[in-house]
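REQUEST FORM: STRUCTURE PREDICTION
Request ID: SP-0412
Submitted by: Lab K.M.
Chain count: 1
Length (residues): 439
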Amino acid sequence: MSDHDLWPGVARRLRAQVSPREFETWLRPLKLRLEDSRAIFTVPNRFFADWLSERYLSAINQALMSESGNHLETVFEVADQEPSPAVVTPAPAEVPRELSLNPAYTFSSFVVGPCNELAHAACQAVADQPGRQYNPLMIFGGSGLGKTHLVSAVGNQLTGRDPGFLVHYTSSEAYSNEMIQAVRFDGIQSFRNKYRQVDCLIIDDIQFLSGRERTQEEFFHTFDSLFQSGKQIVLTSDKMPRDIPGLAGRLRTRFEWGLPADLQTPDEETKIAILQRKAAEKNLVLSRKVASYLSRQPESSVRVLEGYLNRLMAVSRLQGVEADLELARQVVGPLVSERQVGVDEVLGAVASHYGLKVADLKGSRKTRDISHPRQVAMYLARRLTRSSFPEIGRAMGGKDHSTVVKGVKRVEQLMAKDPELGETVRVVEAAIQGGRRGG
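STATUS: Completed
RESULT:
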C-alpha cells in the first residue's frame, strides 16, 4: 500500500475520533510518506510535532494499524523549508478575533457594595500602582457579577493616564486560538513577543485553560516572563484557582501568589443602586419602588436584571408611558413568573427520550447515537434556560463553549430540513415544560 492510498483511510478514522476543529487544526495539515516500516508525517515545526506526540499519537498509531494491517513506527518530521520573504497568514475566517477594552467600563460607573468592596479596592490599587501590588490579581465569581467591568476599568485607567502604557486585554479562549494559529503558521515567536512585551496583561475567563496542556505550558512561560519583569497580570475566573479542574499545579500556585478577590451576589440595596445607575446612564428616571421590584426577582445575575430594565425602557418609550410599577409588573412579571428550567432538567428529559443515561450526554463518546442527542440537549438548554454557552458546556461535562455553539447551530440547521427531528424536539420540550408546570 502506498502512502497516497493509506492517508485517506487514516484521515477518515481520525476525523471520527476528534472534533472538527481539532482535525482541521492539527491533523488535516499532515503529509504522510512511507519508508520501510515507518510512517513519516511532515509537520510545520517542532512545537507542532510535540503537540501531536502528546495528544494524538495513540489515535494515529491505531488508525495506521487498522488501515495498513501492519505495525508502523510513527515519526514526526519537521519540514525543512527555506525562509520566504512572503508572510503567510491564516485565512480571514481563521484569524482569532481581537478583543478590546469597553470604554464604558470604568471605576466611576461601577457600583460598590458589600458584595464587591474587596475586588473593587484591589483593582483600584493595581490601576494606581501596576506591578507593585497584588500581582497577579485574580477576580473570581459567578456570571454577570461585574468581573469584566472591573478588570476593564483597570485597563482603561492605565491607558487613560499614560497612552504609552501597553495594556492587552483578551480571553483565555482567544489566547488559545491565537496560539494554535501561531503554531500552525510558524509564528510562535511573534506570538510570544506580543504577549511578553506588554505592561499589563488582562485575561478574562482563565478557567477555560482547563485541560489545555500546551496552552497552559505556553502561558506558564509568558506569566513568568511578565512577572519577573515587574509587569502586571490581571485574571478573571468563575472559581478559585484551586477549584479549576485540569489546571497545572504550577499555574495554580502562581495564580495564588497575588490576591484572589471574589465577587458575591449583590444584596438588594446594591441591586437597586446598580439598576438606578444603569437607568440614569440611559436617561431614564427609575423610581426606587420600581428598582426594588426588579431587584427582588429570583435572579442573581446583574446582567439579567439589566435585561429586565432594557425591556421595561423599550416598552415605556414605545407606548409613551411612564416606567412605573404597574408597567414593570406587566412587562417583567411574565418573564419570571414560571419556575426556571435548569440544564440538568433538560439533560434528564433528553436522556429519557433517547433511552440514554445523563452520563452518556455528559461524556466524550462521539458516536452518532450519543452525539446527536447531546446536540439536541445543547439546543434545548440554550432555548429553555438562561444559561450561557460556557455555563451549558460546564454542566454537560466540561464541554468547550464553542462545541455548544456548534451543537445548537447543527440542530437548528437539521430542524429546517427534517420535520421529524422538529417534532422530536417539540415532544421533548413539551415534556420539560410539563414537568415545570407540575413542579
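NOTES: The chain has four domains: 3-78, 117-263, 268-336, 343-438.
Reviewed by: T.R.
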